[in-house]
Amino acid sequence: METELESSDHTVNNLQLRDMDIRYCIGYFGCWIKTPGECSNTADDTKVVRREYINSDLVIFASPVMVGFTSTLLKRTHDNLLPLLMPYIRLYEGESHHVPRYDKYPLISLLIQPDGKTDAEDIEIIEVADAITCV
Q1: Global pTM?
Q2: What is the pLDDT of residues 9-20, one digit of tens each?
Q3: Which domain covers residue 31, as residue numbers?
């Protein structure tokens, strides 16, 4: 996929999360007030992930399905994208959504590799749980 995108004059930045230091978000939430847009409590590679994410037009996450969900590494990464949103919540189509911090966010896609025990319900749960929506 990378080669095809690059041959069409797209710039591809491939981040191998498994090779990065991605720590758990501890819920300090200083990223909303004290250091807007940046985690104020963790010195890891999520700063790189956030910078690449917010400066992208399209982000494709890839993960195996493990026990009916995406990997814990992808979940940790999603949690660490929280500084890219505001702490305020608003209703959108009957759902609670964070107010966006920035004017532009990338389109996102999730590429999963189901295992032999993955069923349609697992896929539906993953689609809802891994949605990062800003409106």
Answers
A1: 0.81
A2: 888 999 999 999
A3: 14-129
